[in-house]
Amino acid sequence: MSQYTDEELIDLFSQEGQQHQAFNLLVQRHQQKAYFFIRKLVIDHDDTNDVVQEVFIKVWKNLPKFRGDSLFSTWLYRICTNESIDHLKRQRRGLFSSIEDVQKKLSGLIDTDPLYDGDEIRKKLDKAVLELPHKQRIIFTLKYFEEKKI
Fold it and tell me: Mean pLDDT of all residues in the chain?
């Protein structure tokens, strides 16, 4: 993909005229992981694509402020988490319903989404994860699906 590390790409981003190249390489490297992480939280394919787009817009706008206190991927997952939560809150407000109603709707999408490729056991697991409160669902997803340290 790229011979550059994330840190080198962030440095490259700070150089005049190199922002687009550096950003494109960061997106290529991290877009798929961001998509699958967000998909576990948002479920719907189209909504996930929208959230991923919002995530990378935020990355573009805020990358100059990235201090490097953590890994870029840690910072990116935080943005993914916040954007996913914001999306679910907007969805809940738009439906004038409780988070439980949104979870039921998302659970139904697991069965009807033609792009969902899990078997029956995976569907049951994903539905069970949806029953968790959203903070626990995020932690569970990060730990067991993304294999991140808590």
Answer: 83
